[in-house]
C-alpha cells in the first residue's frame, strides 16, 4: 500500500483548460470520455465542467499531449489553453457558495416553488439557522410577506 502512494505522488497531474462551444460542455465531456475509452488512452483522470463558467472544461490529465490526442477531432472543441491551472484555482472555480450566504435583505428574487411560484419578491430577512427567508411579494396588490425555504427562491440577475 505504501508503494501505491509513492507511485501516485510521482504522477504529475495537470489541470488543462479546454475551450468549447457555450452550452455544449456536457456533450464534449461525454465525447471526450467515449474517445478516451475507445482509444485506450491512459492519463485522463477526470473531466470537470465548472458551474460558473460557460464554454470551458477542465481536464485532469498527465499532460497536454494526452488532451490533444483525445480532443483533436471532437466537434464543439474550440481550443486548449497553453498553461495549466493549479489545484487551488480549480477548487475556487468549482466551489459553490450556499444560497443562504448569497441572500441579503433587499435582494430581488424569484420564487421557484410553492404557492407563490413565478412571483417576484424582495428579501426582508434571512434566517441562516432555519434556512428560510422572509419575502415581501412585489406582485401583490397589498403588502404581503411570506416565509419560505431558501431553496424555493433564486436571485434575479439585473
From TrEMBL:
Molecular function via GO: translation elongation factor activity
UniProt entry tagged with the keyword Protein biosynthesis: yes
Keywords from the named record: Elongation factor, Protein biosynthesis, Transcription, Transcription regulation
Domain of life: Archaea
Domain NusG-like N-terminal: 12-97
One biological process term in Gene Ontology: DNA-templated transcription elongation
NCBIfam families tied to this protein: KOW_elon_Spt5
HAMAP family given in the database record: Spt5_arch (MF_00950)
Subunit: Heterodimer composed of Spt4 and Spt5. Interacts with RNA polymerase (RNAP).
Family: Belongs to the SPT5 family. Belongs to the archaeal Spt5 family.
Protein name: Transcription elongation factor Spt5
Gene designation per UniProt: spt5
Amino acid at each position: 500500500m505504501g508503494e501505491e502512494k509513492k507511485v501516485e505522488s510521482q504522477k504529475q497531474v495537470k489541470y488543462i483548460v479546454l475551450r468549447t462551444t457555450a452550452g455544449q460542455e456536457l456533450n464534449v465531456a461525454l465525447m471526450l470520455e467515449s474517445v478516451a475509452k475507445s482509444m485506450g488512452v491512459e492519463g485522463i483522470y477526470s473531466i470537470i465542467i465548472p458551474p460558473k463558467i460557460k464554454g470551458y472544461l477542465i481536464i485532469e490529465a498527465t499532460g497536454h499531449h494526452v488532451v490533444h490526442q483525445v480532443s483533436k477531432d471532437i466537434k464543439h472543441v474550440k481550443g486548449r489553453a497553453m498553461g495549466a491551472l493549479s489545484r487551488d484555482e480549480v477548487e475556487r472555480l468549482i466551489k459553490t457558495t450556499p444560497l443562504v450566504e448569497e441572500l441579503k435583505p433587499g435582494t430581488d428574487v424569484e420564487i421557484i416553488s410553492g404557492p407563490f411560484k413565478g412571483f417576484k419578491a424582495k428579501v426582508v430577512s434571512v434566517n441562516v439557522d432555519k434556512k428560510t427567508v422572509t419575502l415581501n411579494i412585489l406582485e401583490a396588490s397589498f403588502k404581503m410577506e411570506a416565509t419560505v425555504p431558501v431553496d424555493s427562491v433564486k436571485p434575479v440577475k439585473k
